[in-house]
Amino acid sequence: MKGNSKMNIGVLVSGGGSNLQAIMDAVAVGDLDVNIACVGSDNPDAGGLQRADKAGIPTFVTDYGALFGRWRDGAPLPEDFCLETVAARQSLMKGSDPDSLRAFLEKRAMAESALLAALVPYKIDLLVLAGFMRVLTPYFIDALNTDPNRPRIMNIHPALLPAFPGTDGYGDTFRYGCKVGGCTVHFVDYGEDSGPIIGQSSFSIDPGDDLDAVKKKGLAEEWRLFPECIRLYAEDRLNVVEREGTRVVEILPEKD
Ligand code: GAR
């Protein structure tokens, strides 16, 4: 963020985009003082793209499926992709055999290179993953996180991390019989949903609640928590520090 100008955020969605809507609404009513510069998706049919269109926000699609197909057809890898470097940093595919790991990282580098190129014109300060259902590899993360003290990718996850990382946080919480569920906003690091936690919100899972009820309660918390965490970032109040070997987020008091 430079001078007094508003922070530019980019938002990535894969689905319906109710979190995107909550962020757009917070901006519209003045609770969040940022500029939503663009909304992108890996999924051409994502409902979030229509929400952005309606609000006059530029959109783009990075079609992961098509780009994975190009990799299978032997299209050249991005010139700045180094398999050894990315493989050494990632912790998404621990213990997998070298061929599977190579395929996993090369395919994603094809897609992530296109994603990075799509974001360039918008000069974003922060990238917000609002229901973006793709993991990001160190190839992408390092391109954005040029300052180790100021991570630039934020994700919302539908569980109280570090419990239940992965693609079905509310489902996993419910099936485990948890009496409390929740959501977590965190910075993205090289693992799956493992980065420094910025904020969490919880709700009770009551007798008689089914999975739909759990999701409904969870989303209501997400819509409140996510704009709040973005606001803290925009106010420069998130400080990443090392605590006993783990990177954690300190929330700084409001500035006068
Ligand atoms: C949200 O519940 C979000 O936490 C989750 O996807 C949903 C998106 O809903 N994200 C993940 O599971 C990321 N791994 P939305 O499209 O209505 O915002």
UniProtKB/TrEMBL annotation:
GO molecular function: phosphoribosylglycinamide formyltransferase activity
Catalytic residue list: 157
Keywords: Purine biosynthesis, Transferase
Membrane-spanning ranges: none
Gene3D superfamilies, A to Z: Formyl transferase, N-terminal domain (3.40.50.170)
Swiss-Prot/TrEMBL GO biological process terms: 'de novo' IMP biosynthetic process
Record EC number: 2.1.2.2
Formyl transferase N-terminal domain: residues covered: 7-229
Pathway in which this enzyme or protein is active: Purine metabolism; IMP biosynthesis via de novo pathway; N(2)-formyl-N(1)-(5-phospho-D-ribosyl)glycinamide from N(1)-(5-phospho-D-ribosyl)glycinamide (10-formyl THF route): step 1/1
Enzyme class: transferase
Superkingdom as given in the UniProt entry: Bacteria
Site (Raises pKa of active site His): 193
SUPFAM superfamilies: Formyltransferase
Role noted for this protein: Catalyzes the transfer of a formyl group from 10-formyltetrahydrofolate to 5-phospho-ribosyl-glycinamide (GAR), producing 5-phospho-ribosyl-N-formylglycinamide (FGAR) and tetrahydrofolate.
NCBIfam families: PurN (TIGR00639)
Similarity-based family: Belongs to the GART family.
Protein name: Phosphoribosylglycinamide formyltransferase
Organism: Desulfoluna butyratoxydans
